[in-house]
Known about the structure:
By secondary structure, the protein is mainly α. About 55% of the residues lie in helices and about 0% in strands.
Amino acid sequence: MxxxxxxxxxxxxxxxxxxxxxxxxxxxxRLSTGLRINRGADDPAGL
Length: 47
């Protein structure tokens, strides 16, 4: 019989890394453009 094991710690670490990378990408975009609002999704009321 085949067993499938899941490394829960690894899955959690991968999710945290993806979230951190997404946040870093947004911050780098703001730094590179010098703008607080780069897209409408950044602050819909601020446009």
